[in-house]
Amino acid sequence: MGRIVVVTSGKGGTGKSTVCAGLAYALARQGRRILLIDGDAGLRSLDLMLGVGSNTVYDMADVFAGRCKPIKAIYASPVSQNVFVMPAPLSLEQLCSPQELHRLAKGLSRYFDVVIVDCPAGVGRGFETAIAAAAEALVVCTPDMVCARDARLLSDILAARSIPARLIINRLRPRKIMDGSMPDIDRIIDESALQLMGVIPEDETVAVANANGRPLPLDCNAALCFSNIARRFVGETVLLAPLEKM
Ligand code: ADP
Ligand code: MG
């Protein structure tokens, strides 16, 4: 049985889908087989980020409506033979129940090493459905105190459901931290009350890769950070790179 992990955040636009895609590619490079389930009904960005958007016929809603078997709604990445995605329903109304997603993810986890569920922002119905499937969580936070407080809220909710959670700080701007105009990593960790899984710098390459439905070039800092996160995810001890090297 593969691990089932949900990627979530209190605020929108923190980079949840970016983390899902970056982590999936990095784990795939370790030889693991990854399924991404897009739980962000209505917005569904993962198929586009993975470059399969124009080829999709079926999505998660078709599976639950009985219009197709799950395998028909799973699309292979055009660039990685180990990364697959199931697109989200086109609208929130079409989203399945938490129990249904739990059953689906559990069933599919037999065929993958890791199932990553992308979550909508906030703690509404989509969140409840996405976390129902997961045994562990990654909370994505940008380096500002409002986002860190939202992460704290989430960490409390996840703890109450006995879902162990770890923190990913995205869009880090090392220079801003060094000149004191952005809160440092320790403050974000303290405020969120979560254990750190990794950081990803603000990097234009990330936005460009997302927009073009491509993986990150392997030589950029963000790709190295994802690779470190993937190594920690499987239990390796990897030190955080110094800010000035990020
Ligand atoms: P969410 O899924 O949380 O709504 P996305 O992953 O869609 O967030 O990211 C929101 C926007 O921010 C996207 O345009 C994405 O390309 C951009 N983005 C995310 N992370 C980074 C980063 N580290 N550096 C630069 N741009 C980023
Ligand atoms: Mg998203």
Walk me through what this model shows.
The protein is an alpha/beta fold. The protein is 38% helix and 17% strand. Strands 3-4-2-5-1-6-7-8 form an 8-stranded mixed beta sheet, sandwiched between helices. Helix 1 (16-29) crosses helix 10, helix 4 (98-108) packs parallel to helix 5 (125-132) and helix 6 (145-160) packs parallel to helix 8. The N and C termini lie far apart (35 Å). The protein has helices spanning 16-29, 46-49, 60-64, 98-108, 125-132, 145-160, 174-178, 185-192, 204-212, 221-233; strands spanning 3-8, 34-38, 75-76, 83-86, 114-118, 136-141, 165-172, 195-201. It binds adenosine-5'-diphosphate and magnesium ion (MG). Adenosine-5'-diphosphate (ADP) binds next to helix 1, strand 7 and helix 9.
Mean pLDDT: 96
* Biggest sheet features: 8 strands, mixed
N-end to C-end Cα span: 35 Å
Pick out the low-confidence regions: none
Radius of gyration: 17 Å
Q: What global shape is seen?
A: globular
Q: Widest sheet: strand order? A: 3-4-2-5-1-6-7-8
The structure class reads alpha/beta
Ligands present = adenosine-5'-diphosphate, magnesium ion
How large a portion of the residues is in β-strands, by DSSP E?
15-25%
* Order of secondary-structure elements: EHEHHEEHEHEHEHHEHH
Percent of residues in helices = 25-40%
Q: Total strand count, please?
A: 8
Put simply, the count of helices is 10
